[in-house]
Queue: 2 jobs
Job 1
Amino acid sequence: MSPPTTLIYGGSGKVAQHLIRHLLSLPLPHKIHPIVRSASQTPALAALGAHPIVQSIETSSAEAMAATMRATRATAIIWSAGAGGGDPARTRAVDFEGAVRCMDAAALAGVKRFVMVSAVDVRDREGGAEPEWYDEGDRERSAGMWGKIGPYMEAKLAADRSLVGENGRRGLEWTIVRPGGLSEEKGTGRVSAGKVHIQARIPREDVAAVVVECLGNEGTVGLAFDVVGGETGVKEAVRKVVEGREDTFEGRY
Ligand SMILES: NC(=O)c1ccc[n+]([C@@H]2O[C@H](COP(=O)([O-])OP(=O)(O)OC[C@H]3O[C@@H](n4cnc5c(N)ncnc54)[C@H](OP(=O)(O)O)[C@@H]3O)[C@@H](O)[C@H]2O)c1
């Protein structure tokens, strides 16, 4: 049996490097192709046991991305790329337009499974009601995020809206993982997931563990949920989200 083959967009990123370690330590290790934009990024990823491919998100068409997916016989896509804030035009080009081309590419190549790393509070703040579980702290955090990194939040919203709202034409098996602020601290293996308060940060290593858990749990297909640092083991936290269908994006885009 050939191993699951996973392409990671944003493959040289900090979350991606944890993803590579997690996916390689599974009982059935994945073959991993981190997609990067510079050849200088490949030796470090190869040293981790991955098979990096150089293909810039900004300059690649959906067809070119699909060709890579076909050539590698990809079985799953993880989107963990981002322009890192800053320039709004580049943010839109990577976090929105690049992500949408990647979704289109997956549909063209017939790769069904697509896990998106998004962020808490990505939602239509103007048109939709505030999440009913938000408290004063969440409201402050939301205002802070949209005030400081509005173009990033808009780009993520547009990408996630396309992933969910336009899936009729793509037919992807998507999951959206929406982490709180990311930290470089060591992972604890414990999180709080679903309809949670959004102030707590989460180590990148734990975000990677949640994404990997989603890949192994088909119940997460068609779900978008928040995840922050917490006290529940990753497997159990994801299981509870699935059981309660705790979607934090539905009706908010
Ligand atoms: N920071 C937070 O607190 C936060 C919170 C919630 C969610 N997120 C999301 O979590 C995800 C992972 O975060 P992270 O900390 O791992 O980010 P990161 O370390 O900045 O990784 C993002 C990756 O995207 C790559 N990228 C950017 N433009 C590209 C292009 N044109 N072609 C190919 N690759 C390109 C970057 O490559 P280069 O190194 O070449 O630029 C980088 O490796 C992102 O989607 C981010 O939006 C972040």
Job 2
Amino acid sequence: MPEKLTAAIIGCGKLGQHYAETYSALPNVELVALAEFNDARRAVVARRFGVPGFKDAPEMFENIIPDVVATVLPGKYIYSAVMSAVQAGVRGISSDKPLGANLSEADEMVDACAANGIVFAGGNLQRAMYEIQEAASWVSNGDFGEIIGASVNGFAGEISGGGCQAISVLRLFTNAEVTEVTAWGHPEEALKGDSDSGLAIDGRFRLSSGIECSVFSESAVRGVDVWSEDSLVRWGWDPPISVFRGFDKHGSRIQLSPAFSSYEWGEYHYLGASIRSFLEVVRSGRGQLAVSGHDLRQALEVAIASKYSALWGSVPLRLPLPDRSLQLIPSRARWLGQDPNGSGQPIDEAHIRWDGYMPEKRHVAGK
Ligand SMILES: NC(=O)c1ccc[n+]([C@@H]2O[C@H](COP(=O)([O-])OP(=O)(O)OC[C@H]3O[C@@H](n4cnc5c(N)ncnc54)[C@H](O)[C@@H]3O)[C@@H](O)[C@H]2O)c1
């Protein structure tokens, strides 16, 4: 029998509740506590999941130290929650994205976990999705031949918030790090502001594999493409993966219908896949995380480099950026949470399961 782990959620807004649902459903893990600032939401969610609720991470750790914690917090509060989990001595920490605003804090979190032997994972990222991981394994097995090009499509709106998804998939598909960023940004007021809200980036990422990746702020299909001489693998959000091989007599790409494996707990979508990989690495002390804290840090760094390259006149910036004090604040709702905008989840909705993060339900709702 795999070892049964205990888990707690820090931050129980709409996404934190989806984490609580998922941890409660998966085998060999028991949700034992939660921490939530908002008194009314804490009371409702703690009752719903039948666990004790605490105000914040320090209060929780005074009472209970679970094996793993998931921070599902507005960006401003992630650093202190992660560092208090490090001090408490948990075995694993996962964070949702973006990891924060500031590179030095991102470094500190990654380094503190590594120095203390704590597994540091990412959370609800598409990169963890089984189909995306499987497509990446086809690419790295050479099933499509040598990858010679890549593009990031639709890198705009929230380049550190939503953009984190694209950078994480790009690095997975190319098995490479971004080593240099050259970017152009618009509109000017977004480029000159502190936050990534509304910022649209075009440019070029140089990758450690030698590939030059084009970056487009606008594109018919949003996501990431990688291609070889005759094939194209596309992550385009929905459907997550499209594969093309060869050309018809008009020169158009021919789309394939690849057979994906079926996966246990697939109904818990990419959060389920991400958490399962996290728990497996915590249990075994080895293996590859579907999404790591390093992945989140790299995504933040590419977003910061894109903004500053554009701001400073499209100068090529080599990564790692030497100035670790650089930062990019995510949109207000991601940075401070939705409550300060008055758009937080109403308390009466916190009583019940919200299926917006479950794919089948999302498709039905979209019809
Ligand atoms: N990966 C994804 O697909 C995805 C999707 C949506 C949101 N997110 C990220 O996840 C985060 C949470 O999203 P959400 O929609 O649930 O946000 P939210 O603002 O509705 O919920 C955050 C919750 O955390 C609580 N909180 C804030 N600071 C706290 C602290 N220090 N200790 C304990 N509780 C605290 C708030 O009271 C609130 O209930 C967001 O910041 C966002 O960036 C990721």
